[in-house]
Amino acid sequence: xxxxxxxxxxxxxxxxxxxxxxxxxxxxxxxxxxxxxxxxxxxxxxxxxxxxxxxxxxxxxxxxxxxxxxxxxxxxxxxxxxxxxxxxxxxxxxxxxxxxxxxxxxxxxxxxxxxxxxxxxxxxxxxxxxxxxxxxxxxxxxxxxxxxxxxxxxxxxxxxxxxxxxxxxxxxxxxxxxxxxxxxxxxxxxxxxxxxxxxxxxxxxxxxxxxxx
Length: 213
Prior knowledge:
With 213 residues, the protein is α+β, with helices and mostly antiparallel strands. The chain has helices at residues 5-13, 70-86, 94-102, 107-115, 118-128, 167-173; strands spanning 56-58, 132-145, 151-164, 180-192, 195-203, 207-208. A hairpin with a 5-residue loop joins strand 2 (132-145) and strand 3. Helix 1 (5-13) packs across helix 5 and helix 2 (70-86) packs antiparallel against helix 3. The radius of gyration is 17 Å and the shape is globular.
């Protein structure tokens, strides 16, 4: 369905459907929700970090947080697992991967996405364009937790490869199969009954992974 290729590009790896910003589903600026959801991909990159970096702070005070802080660890896990679900997809696995990523969304965010037919739109995009992507790396950027430890903003960049896609999709993207892209993202999360859930995901411009921001 070639008419959908330009929209698919925006929906997939650029930035937002309405105000939604999800990995795999948005066009500007992307814990545990349901126990019955599909399993996460068995292998995806683990975010790298330098123990000496001070990327995590308390928003109101600037106090630096260490990597052994329980909330830092929990937030890293949620963001890494979500990106692993959303950035590893094929036509045959996309439905399960959407169910998997929804495990990490807050109830309000799930309602918002349901109103925009997120699951059906993403599934159709991958199937119609014979699209497969694979995450190749991830990295943290500056992130903050509110003093009340109920809200957080997590900076993150995902690297992924277009493994394969229809000729029309690749033409619209101006890319070849095997090309790698990088995209900065900002996740907002809320703690609900002790667990962190994603409220929204804002995405920055897509770029070739070999280039610098």
